[in-house]
């Protein structure tokens, strides 16, 4: 019973911090961004997230982790979703991500559904942010307003991901330095690093 309370409490703080840190960094975002250009986008995304979680409950935590790993490297720009090209090696195969994060197939499915309704309108970065929030809410966690209107990155860097996302074995000074570079406090660091490595 205590474990469940602690996990729920940690999840609450984790989502609250992720929501505030990564949405405040994008002051021009609006929760109504797609209201006129793709009014069914939020419904489509939410429905797909719920379907994925019903199929496999753990995918909810995976979508939240995907969003965090995306945001921790050059901001919430969807760069984590990019496959390698002849011009760059992306973030998917970076050491902290390789065989560690999952849910790309769910995001691809959501993107296909949204594209069918509104081709070329909704960014993958926004889909990832909404999928993370909707996962937490569906699994009983808190909700938060997601600012929308992010632009997708057209490039990614495995080397930046390798230096920006620390391994769970990182020492305290490396953690403090990394979180400080993201303008996160020690309190943020404790909550986020504790939750990330418990997924």
UniProtKB/TrEMBL annotation:
Q: Which InterPro entries match?
A: Haem_peroxidase (IPR002016), Haem_peroxidase_sf (IPR010255), Peroxidase_pln (IPR000823), Peroxidases_AS (IPR019794)
Active site: which residues?
69
> Among its keywords, does the record have Glycoprotein?
yes
Residues annotated as site: Transition state stabilizer: 65
Q: What class of enzyme is it?
A: oxidoreductase
Q: How is the cofactor bound?
A: Binds 2 calcium ions per subunit.
Superkingdom of the source species = Eukaryota
Q: Could you state a single Gene Ontology molecular function term?
A: metal ion binding
| Cofactors required | heme b; Ca(2+)
The Enzyme Commission number assigned here is 1.11.1.7
| Domain spans labelled Plant heme peroxidase family profile | 28-194
Which cysteines are cross-linked by disulfides? 38-118, 71-76
Query: Gene3D superfamilies this protein is in?
Result: 1.10.520.10
Sites where the protein binds Ca(2+)? 70, 73, 75, 77, 79, 91
Task: Show the catalytic activity.
Answer: 2 a phenolic donor + H2O2 = 2 a phenolic radical donor + 2 H2O
Which Gene Ontology terms describe the biological processes this protein takes part in? hydrogen peroxide catabolic process; response to oxidative stress
Q: Which UniProt keywords apply?
A: Calcium, Disulfide bond, Glycoprotein, Heme, Hydrogen peroxide, Iron, Metal-binding, Oxidoreductase, Peroxidase, Secreted, Signal
UniProt family annotation: Belongs to the peroxidase family.
Quote the function comment for this protein.
Answer: Removal of H(2)O(2), oxidation of toxic reductants, biosynthesis and degradation of lignin, suberization, auxin catabolism, response to environmental stresses such as wounding, pathogen attack and oxidative stress. These functions might be dependent on each isozyme/isoform in each plant tissue.
Q: What is this protein called?
A: peroxidase
